[in-house]
Write a structure and sequence with these properties.
Layout (H helix, E strand, L loop, with lengths): L16 H5 L5 E5 L5 E5 L9 H5 L9 E2 L1 E7 L2 H6 L5 H10 L4 E8 L4 E7 L21 H10 L4 E5 L1 H11 L11 E6 L7 H15 L3 E5 L17 E4 L4 E3 L6 H7 L17 E2 L3 E5 L12 H4 L2 E5 L2 H4 L2 H4 L3 E5 L3 H5 L14 H7 L5 H8 L1 H13 L1 H13 L1
Parallel strand pairs: 5-7, 7-8, 8-13
Antiparallel strand pairs: 1-2, 3-12, 4-14, 4-15, 5-6, 9-10, 10-11, 13-14
Length: 401
């Protein structure tokens, strides 16, 4: 007999709220053959109290709110350089830290090659939580930890995907901390979907074979003085053991070929309940793709531009403090929504997804991408060879003729 209190595995987001809620600790989050975490219940220890089902956000309706849209970026250029986009997370984190609170976010552990949520209690530790992670984060015991912090009157900022926020809120609403929810601020990073660590490791191994040396660090977005926010968004920066650096030419990064073609997202991502402009969190932050460059200061697209939605009265109350550290301008949402699919609907499940995971254990990652995404792969190679600017010029000539 299985655990019939939990949702269908196809809809499970791996948030871990059920494991946090189990009073007998008989639910463990374990990776399946695709590398995604799912709850596994020791039914011999289970007392069938049903608490896991009560906190499973998939089984319950979520409270969502339509928010106001803002264009924004951090006023501190050094913070902008350290951030994947416009440095909004840092500004939000600082407002809570300044209230003697704590911040939870995803940390990328290069030694263990994993991503997990952890707590930060000071400004000088925020670097741990900055930058994008395209891999699913392990929530560990975060729900229980935040519950205890709220009961002790400690303000908390939680940043994660919308489904992680949903899992946390569902857990807290079924706990004694429900009366302290005014101390919790939630921010979701607008999510295309998540990859598994298994896929990330396969990509890294392929690049190690290519260079015949080990990778010690990797960053999913490239943004520095040489490659700005706009042109570095779909490339992974690889730092090898000898400190040499490799960044694929624009359009030729094989990780983002697979990711942007939805080839290896978690199964539940294709039916995400949290897409759309009605949001579950206090704040939603994302890249402001499609932003009219004429509306920006010169060079701002090199440093990063974010879109932020302010979704609750509690979030609105923080706006005066945020304006001290950020440029913030209210915008019409049309451009942001048009250029961020997750503000509309989930991504489609490709037919080749099953074949990808069936072959992943026995096939080199780059070889697999070349096989399954042949047209995308060679288009990227041609773009890298000719150059993006040259292709733009050719397209203009074709249009004129």
């Amino acid at each position: 007999m299985g655990n019939d209190f939990l949702c269908d595995p196809k809809n499970c987001t791996g948030c871990g709220s059920c494991a946090n809620a189990c009073p007998k600790a008989c639910i463990q989050m374990r990776e399946n053959h695709e590398g995604f975490p799912y709850p596994v219940t020791d039914m011999e220890q289970c007392v069938r109290c049903g608490k896991c089902g009560k906190v499973c956000h998939v089984l319950h309706e979520a409270d969502k709110h339509e928010g106001s849209f803002y264009m924004c970026w951090n006023n501190n250029r050094e913070i902008l350089k350290k951030s994947s986009s416009g440095g909004v997370f840092t500004a939000l984190a600082m407002t809570v830290l300044n209230r003697n609170g704590v911040v939870y976010g995803a940390y990328q552990d290069f030694e263990q090659k994993c991503v997990y949520h952890t707590v930060v209690r000071s400004e000088n530790r925020l670097d741990k939580l900055r930058k994008s992670k395209y891999c699913q984060s392990d929530m560990k015991a975060v729900c229980r930890e935040i519950c205890e912090l709220l009961k002790a009157d400690t303000p908390v900022l939680f940043c994660g995907t919308a489904c992680q926020v949903a899992g946390l809120l569902s857990y807290l609403k079924n706990s004694p901390a429900i009366t302290k929810l005014e101390l919790l601020y939630t921010v979701d990073v607008l999510c295309h979907g998540v990859a598994s660590q298994k896929t990330v490791n396969a990509f890294l191994k392929s690049k190690e074979r290519m260079k015949h040396k080990k990778i010690k660090r990797y960053y999913f977005r490239v943004k520095d003085t040489g490659v700005g926010w706009k042109s570095g968004c779909t490339r992974v920066r690889l730092v090898y053991e000898d400190d040499s650096v490799y960044v694929a030419p624009l359009g030729a990064d094989t990780f983002f070929m697979g990711f942007n073609n939805n080839l290896f997202l978690r199964e539940s991502c294709y039916r995400c309940r949290y897409c759309g402009t009605a949001r579950i969190s206090d704040f939603t932050i994302a890249d402001y793709w499609g932003v009219p460059e004429e509306s920006l200061p010169e060079g701002q697209t090199r440093y990063g531009v974010s879109v932020m939605t302010v979704n609750t009265e509690k979030a609105e109350a923080l706006m005066p403090e945020l304006k001290d550290s950020m440029y913030i301008e209210k915008i019409n949402p049309d451009i942001a929504v048009a250029n961020n699919r997750s503000f509309k609907k989930p991504n489609d499940r490709p037919e080749k997804r099953d074949e990808y995971f069936r072959l992943l254990d026995t096939t080199d990652y780059d070889t697999l991408i070349r096989k399954l995404l042949r047209k995308t792969y060679w288009k990227g190679k041609v773009k890298a060879l000719i150059g993006a600017e040259t292709i733009k010029k050719i397209k203009k000539i074709i249009k004129r003729n």
